[in-house]
Design brief:
Distance between the termini: 29 Å
Strand order of the largest sheet: 11-6-1-2-3-19
Shape: globular
Largest sheet: 6 strands, mixed
Radius of gyration: 23 Å
Bound molecules: adenosine-5'-triphosphate, magnesium ion
Oligomer: single chain
Number of strands: 19
Helix content: 25-40%
CATH class of the largest domain: Alpha Beta
CATH superfamily of the largest domain: ATPase, nucleotide binding domain
Structural class: alpha/beta
Strand content: 25-35%
Low-confidence stretches: 385-407
Number of domains: 3
Length: 407
Amino acid sequence: MAKPENFLVACDIGTSKVCILIGEQNAGGALDVIGKGASANRGTRKGNIINVDATIEAIKRAAEEAEIMAGVQISRAWVGLSGSQVRSFNSRGVVAVAGKDRGITKEDVDRVIEAAKSVQIPQDHVVVHSIARDFAVDGQDGIPDPVGMIGNRLEADVLVVTAPVAVTQNVETCMNKAGIEVIELVLEQFAAAEAVLTPDEKELGIGLVDIGGGTTEVAVYQKGTIVHTAVVPIGGDHFTNDLAVVLRAPITDAERLKKKYGCALRSAVGDDEMVEVPMVGGRAPKLCPRSTLADILQPRAEELLGLVHDDLQRLGLDKEIRSGLVLTGGGAELEGVIEIAEGIFDGPVRRGVPAGVGGLVDVVSRPEWATATGLLLYGHRHKPSRRRARAFFQAANSVSRFIRDFF
Ligand SMILES: Nc1ncnc2c1ncn2[C@@H]1O[C@H](COP(=O)(O)OP(=O)(O)OP(=O)(O)O)[C@@H](O)[C@H]1O
Ligand SMILES: [Mg+2]
């Protein structure tokens, strides 16, 4: 049996469902997906946990499914952090360094990032990530890695991502009560980018737009690093709601109709195709042209992508995303949404299908698995040393068994 330190677990607590993936490092050092679990979640709204018990149950169900498939027990995981309350901003840090006798060290770099973080962050928020995107030594900027350089003054441009303490604590509480230790909370769009963006795209400039159930999460990359994140409080569920309200159909039927017949591009749908629409209150279903569905969905898609465009335009980033956009999340599966995005952004747009993992590739080869797959890849890149991992696994396994039995 493979060693526990070779396993990695990713957990994406989404508005629609909790996704858990188990990965295993293979003999060549790459990552194979060996287990997958998904469970509908009624415990979150707009990416924030609103019902702890429902979320714990959803995590437990997804974990059990993944454990059975992989034949291993989950004890700790890399966990996605999302939600309308996550904020990001750019900050500049400045520190004095040793001077001409010694080059800039890794410790100097850590100090300058710390200095950039020590700006005033929103009340009750904690810093989730601080990502240096550019350094300057003695006023000369555009330096990607200053270690070893000689200078007196080191500056760094840092993207600082913060979230309310309560939001991070809710995620940790739910995970712990489901018997799983949180290794690290990772911004979801940051994780998704690991799975769907190529290094070339990140270098040239690209936008990632993850259309989830309750929110749409945005990340912009330039010169290889993340430079901006945002959350738009509209997701795929708003499209479903629009159909339900206008057609007077039950939500579950509207969701099914959206996935099967929905198209966000009215001009791609002919007028002759008819769709049977169930009615609320048990009234007789009625026939409606498929084009009516597109009439309802297109304005919502334009509104959503228009808001993303406005946000990037405000920061001058719309011109910087020379590789265009990549759409992920379940909402990216809606027919016609790529064309709408191409029209609004006037550039290339593609669906982001997770790459970079082996094993059960088929089960994750959809845009809605981008975040969970990216969390695995992020964990693989940042995993703790083998000895620490083994010690942690031994302790965590007994704790998780105790917690699971207790709740
Ligand atoms: N084939 C499809 N066509 C249209 N929409 C789809 C399709 N498949 C899934 N969706 C929509 O994708 C949304 C769920 O996406 P996803 O699983 O990425 O969300 P989530 O991660 O749970 O939510 P969030 O990221 O907002 O917390 C739902 O609104 C669902 O209706
Ligand atoms: Mg999501």
